[in-house]
From TrEMBL:
Identification of the protein by name: Aspartokinase
Organism: Holdemanella biformis DSM 3989
ACT domain span: 380-444
Chain positions recorded as substrate binding sites: 55, 119
Record carries keyword Translocase: no
GO molecular function, one term: ATP binding
Enzyme class: transferase
Record-linked Pfam families: AA_kinase, ACT_9
Domain of life: Bacteria
Catalyzed reaction equations: L-aspartate + ATP = 4-phospho-L-aspartate + ADP
Family under the similarity heading: Belongs to the aspartokinase family.
Residues the record lists as binding ATP: 11-14, 210-211
Classification lineage: Bacteria, Bacillati, Bacillota, Erysipelotrichia, Erysipelotrichales
Alphabetical keyword list: Amino-acid biosynthesis, ATP-binding, Diaminopimelate biosynthesis, Kinase, Lysine biosynthesis, Nucleotide-binding, Transferase
GO biological process, one term: threonine biosynthetic process
């Protein structure tokens, strides 16, 4: 495909627009690639760990308004952040006037209007700095009465702006409700805005710039310098993020997943890094049999054994309906012929555990009922695993060789995920052993 015809939607997160220095990095990234013509920005994030995100300060400003407390000191913090960016970049826009007018009219505004201003002012400054048009999300993104996106209306309005401008900057996080008021997405909504633009403008790629270089094959606090994941499918990502690995807002994935538009996660502070491309149908295969490893501690397993259980209709259902009464969601149910385990998050069941066990004894009359409460779950994920016979054997063999006792095994029917339960004390060792077994230092 010729570069001229290629279209990228480029979204920059809060850390990427935190100050003037970050704005300069963005300009450099945009100038490196002429296909980066439509830019979505979040509100400025933290400049350092003890700093505040602008959106958090705006929520605080709204709370002051709501409880009739003097909000001037909070407003000053917000105003100074934007003025600092403007002055350092030598911008001309009379943003002070607009900020002061915003504060003067604070009591007439809804929470949605107030918290959306971080993106609004940031996009205004970014548009002037890049020399691009500013397009306000309130004029483009439309919600239906049920708060879902009105795709037809939004798409028509975006197509019109696309025809009008070769380049524009667009604020993330908000749009307009069915009755004409500003409405915001859930937190992390800038990612959703970028995905909407990518879908409606039929982009070739949706670039999501943040402060990490994509996903890693394992937690860097456990494995030293784990390799980056260059390509991952949505299904694999869902498995890994469920177990705690997260970079993207989940709702940001659906619009582009349907259109099979790849999402490219990139690092504003290290633009030379390859990042991670997320795409369901990709011809590129990883050199490793696995894509990544993720895990969580603090699970509990309830083991139920009853002679001739397999002949008793509805036995497992009875157990599950007891848990349902207590609103407890279940992670896994590995089962044998006359026994099964119910694995749940410890914090979900702790308060009601003894009542539940009493119900189990009364209604199921098991021959054996035991609880193990120091369980950790580790998922090994990869679409390549199903093509390689013996992957499970290799994994279990490696854990055995390292004296790690497997308490539970669960494998997804689509064969992209093998989850093992181990004692909590073996959690770190298990992740390290699996990584060394399948990745180590060498590609397969």
């Amino acid at each position: 495909m010729e570069v001229a015809h290629m279209l990228k939607i480029t979204k920059f997160g809060g850390s990427s627009v935190a100050n003037a220095e970050q704005f300069k990095k963005i300009k450099n990234i945009i100038q490196q690639d002429p296909t980066r013509r439509y830019i979505v920005v979040s509100a400025p994030g933290k400049r350092f760990s003890a700093d505040n995100k602008i959106t958090d300060l705006l929520y605080l400003l709204d709370a002051h308004r709501k409880y009739h407390v003097d909000a001037s000191s909070v407003f000053k913090l917000i105003k100074n952040r934007f003025i600092e960016i403007k002055n350092e970049l030598g911008l001309k826009q009379p943003i002070e006037k607009e900020l002061d007018a915003f504060y003067t009219n604070l009591n007439q505004m809804s929470q949605a209007v107030i918290v959306s201003r971080g993106e609004y002012f940031c996009a205004k400054l970014m548009a002037e700095y890049l020399g691009y048009a500013f397009v306000d999300a309130k004029d483009i993104i439309r919600f239906k009465l049920d708060k879902s996106i009105d795709w037809d209306a939004t798409s028509a309005k975006l197509q019109a702006k696309y025809a009008q401008y070769d380049h524009f900057v667009f604020p993330g996080f908000y749009g307009t409700s069915a009755n004409g008021h500003i409405q915001v997405f859930p937190r992390g909504g800038g990612d959703i805005t970028g995905a909407i633009l990518a879908k409606c403008l039929h982009a070739d790629v949706y670039e999501n710039w943040t402060d990490v270089s994509g996903f890693l094959m394992a937690d860097p606090t456990i494995v030293q310098n784990p390799k980056g994941i260059t390509h991952i499918t949505y299904s694999e990502l869902r498995e890994l993020s469920y177990m705690g690995a997260s970079v993207l807002h989940e709702e940001a994935i659906f619009p582009v997943k349907e259109a099979n538009i790849p999402i490219h996660i990139l690092n504003t502070n290290r633009p030379q890094d390859a990042g991670t491309i997320i795409q369901e149908h990709s011809k590129i295969k990883s050199g490793y049999p696995i894509t990544g490893i993720a895990g969580k501690k603090d699970f509990m397993s309830i083991y139920i054994y009853k002679k001739h259980m397999s002949n008793e209709v509805g036995f497992i259902r009875k157990a599950l309906s007891i848990l349902e009464k207590y609103h407890i969601s279940i992670e896994h149910i590995p089962s044998g012929i006359d026994s099964f385990n119910i694995v749940v998050e410890k914090k979900e069941i702790e308060e009601s555990l003894y009542e539940i066990l009493a119900h189990f004894k009364e209604e199921l009359k098991p021959d054996k009922l035991t609880v193990q409460d120091d369980l950790a779950l580790i998922s090994t994920v990869g679409k390549n695993m199903s093509d390689k016979p013996g992957t499970s054997g290799k994994l279990f063999g490696a854990l055995g060789k390292n004296n790690i006792n497997i308490v539970m095994i669960a494998q997804g029917s689509d064969e992209i995920n093998i989850t093992v339960g181990v004692k909590k004390k073996d959690f770190t060792k298990t992740v390290q052993v699996i990584y060394d077994t399948f990745v180590g230092g060498n590609e397969e």
